[in-house]
Amino acid sequence: xxxxxxxxxxxxxxxxxxxxxxxxxxxxxxxxxxxxxxxxxxxxxxxxxxxxxxxxxxxxxxxxxxxxxxxxxxxxxxxxxxxxxxxxxxxxxxxxxxxxxxxxxxxxxxxxxxxxxxxxxxxxxxxxxxxxxxxxxxxxxxxxxxxxxxxxxxxxxxxxxxxxxxxxxxxxxxxxxxxxxxxxxxxxxxxxxxxxxxxxxxxxxxxxxxxxxxxxxxxxxxxxxxxxxxxxxxxxxxxxxxxxxxxxxxxxxxxxxxxxxxxxxxxxxxxxxxxxxxxxxxxxxxxxxxxxxxxxxxxxxxxxxxxxxxxxxxxxxxxxxxxxxxxxxxxxxxxxxxxxxxxxxxxxxxxxxxxxxxxxxxxxxxxxxxxxxxxxxxxxxxxxxxxxxxxxxxxxxxxxxxxxxxxxxxxxxxxxxxxxxxxxxxxxx
Amino acid sequence: xxxxxxxxxxxxxxxxxxxxxxxxxxxxxxxxxxxxxxxxxxxxxxxxxxxxxxxxxxxxxxxxxxxxxxxxxxxxxxxxxxxxxxxxxxxxxxxxxxxxxxxxxxxxxxxxxxxxxxxxxxxxxxxxxxxxxxxxxxxxxxxxxxxxxxxxxxxxxxxxxxxxxxxxxxxxxxxxxxxxxxxxxxxxxxxxxxxxxxxxxxxxxxxxxxxxxxxxxxxxxxxxxxxxxxxxxxxxxxxxxxxxxxxxxxxxxxxxxxxxxxxxxxxxxxxxxxxxxxxxxxxxxxxxxxxxxxxxxxxxxxxx
Lengths: 429, 304
Description:
The structure holds two protein chains of two kinds.
Chain A: E1 3-9, E2 13-15, E3 20-30, E4 41-48, H1 56-71, E5 77-83, E6 87-91, E7 98-99, H2 102-113, H3 123-140, E8 145-152, H4 161-171, E9 176-182, H5 188-197, E10 202-205, H6 211-223, E11 227-235, E12 241-249, E13 253-254, E14 260-263, E15 266-274, E16 277-286, E17 295-305, E18 310-322, H7 325-328, H8 333-356, H9 360-377, H10 380-387, E19 390-393, E20 398-401, H11 407-416
Parallel strand pairs in A: 2-18, 4-5, 4-8, 8-9, 9-10
Antiparallel strand pairs in A: 1-3, 3-16, 5-6, 5-7, 11-15, 11-17, 12-13, 12-16, 14-15, 17-18, 19-20
Helix pairs in contact in A: 1-2, 1-6, 3-4, 8-9, 9-10
Chain B: E1 4-5, E2 12-13, E3 59-63, E4 68-72, E5 82-91, E6 94-103, H1 111-131, H2 136-152, E7 163-164, E8 166-171, E9 176-181, E10 185-189, E11 194-195, E12 212-213, E13 222-226, E14 232-237, H3 239-242, H4 248-255, H5 260-273, E15 280-287, H6 292-295, H7 300-303
Helix pairs in contact in B: 1-2
């Protein structure tokens, strides 16, 4: 069984008249990692087979899909979907998921070999097809882990935005989807929207030949998940205003709008499936100011299985009013760290947007400031990617936009802007 | 839950209502002291407005024939997370006074439960072992071990662990045995007043280096036996007192010329007047070699 622990980092002391409470909630799941989990699981591999995938990309995509198929644990139900302007289940030969066995894997590998690149791109339809396969499976195996991999190389061109939005909304909550963009012609914002809605990740794969290793790693990670459909349940006091709930590690994800009401004071935020891993959340709530010495519970955070209501872990977010400015003005280091990580991501995204809009002053200012934060906070990978877009002078702290920027570097910087680093020094240590 | 049922007639009542609409029963009794909702959780927080409720431990005084204790919430904390116990123990031939003070760690959940559990466990264990003729050091070691276990058992799966400090004294006819974990202190006040304990804390800070709790690891108490040169007082206290008055001489000046109860009250008052930033708990146990009459020598003014 997977064990969950929760820890709340905050400075609970507030100055008189204030009610602004920030806390970082760290959730850790530990469990049997070496032994293959016995939980039911399903995997759908969705490969872009639009015309642009021709030549080496489709060849590498076939290899990657085969690597994913090979990594499936025996008994995991799976299917392979080929996507262009429509979605076709290329394995199995019926609209259902089948358990992985030596025979079914071999048949799936064979089917993948026959993938050809032609047609357009309509990712919402691919996802809807996957959702329907998962829904049928869900009937027989409630509580199973449901995961999909989506690979594309292009823009979502053959589906109108309203249709795409409807398809995506249809899929929400039905499965977790990790997205991969290969090459330089896909749109980061599109894959981010999919991954965000379906509680998965986005990564850029610069070279098609890197797909195989990535698919294997992604499938392995999916096979390591042991608990499906976990929710963060948050109670806040009646007179409180909940400003935001964000996942801040390993990636930034604003969950505020994803709330499902449980009762008047309590809401659930979906977190998807968990294996042996750790995630952190930043919660900001404003409570009515109290008197010096009074203590208030500003939030009760529970990790729950919404189906059964079972509480896996819980923690308190507190507020206590103090007239000691030394106590009340201290900012918790973990809150400060993740506030910085959020600022860094915004600066990068705004900077790249400004650069594309031709507003070079704003772009330089934002990306230059981001470079400084990245250096200080220990975001080494981000700093390196920023250096491919700007020239940064560490002596003066000034930045200049580079004239020739590899599109792949820009995509990598944008895609990875939501990945955060953990605090380099733990103040508790 | 924001609503509950009327304790008198069982009708559903809404948060914030002062009386049951069905039978008129006053609901405020069990309600939140801030918003009035009849929805205070077992952990002391109102389930409607979140405010932590004051408890009946805000000010407590206990008195034994020859010893006394006072515990107070202080002026800046919303509740009293300190706890104390005082009891007579030992055998008929050799009666001893036993005191225990524990200070709940504010940054842990349910600290008041940790301290209460620890003092109750330790006092019972000390009384049992001393009653069976065990020596004070053995009894103290056993008391700390079982108190630590009891506090560790309060931790809930997946949450932080409740925690507290510990200090106890076994005051016999000829010797005093103190045991401690954390930064609650024991003082000898009398001829050659001194602190009997050394804090388990990073010097100059309140960062504890040892405590009772599930996250404390193995708890190894400090134990010290002391033979006073003459009559005096053993003082056990939480940091709510010694933060303001750490000097043995200053404490002795207040504690020695009063009955134990008056001495404990005065010491608490002193800490309140100094700011009362923390909970304050004080146990005063007189020491006097020989019998009870001799023991009263500690209170010269009383005799006059």
